Amino acid sequence: MRQDHGKHSWSWWKEQIIFNWENDSWRFQMKNYFKETILNIEMDRPISCFLKQKDILTSLYYDMSDAIVHKRILRKCGGDLENYIRRILIETFSTEDYINSMEDITTRTKIGRNWYKTPIDHKTSGKPISRPNIPQDRAPFKCQICGSESHLAST
After folding, report:
1. Domain segments of the chain: what residues?
2. H-only helix segments in 44-145
């Protein structure tokens, strides 16, 4: 198609996309794709996920403002990450501010870190710590005064 039409501005291509390819099945597929893409903090980078979702929303709703797009994307992030970002940022900030804050939060707080690693004995060895086994059957408690097991001495 690019060979047929040559170089045009982005606004011309945007109009062509809107008028030629935007139909009900395409909208349905894009809405489902937006619903399926969820930020997985351990696997995805926030910048790629945020920009994918922003591209999907702007292609579906090209008249939607950036503040509403950011709000809809934040709803998809999950409870903790969404709350942190809403506390830090105002709705009128740019996309770069949202992406930078998401990256900072996922790298510097416990939301993005894996806190369930096994502790290591020495930093150079890499072996897990061997904890001593405590015997389960303990000796019965005895009174300190008379030595019987039926009662304890109260002092």
Report:
1. 23-108
2. 46-60, 66-77, 79-88, 95-108
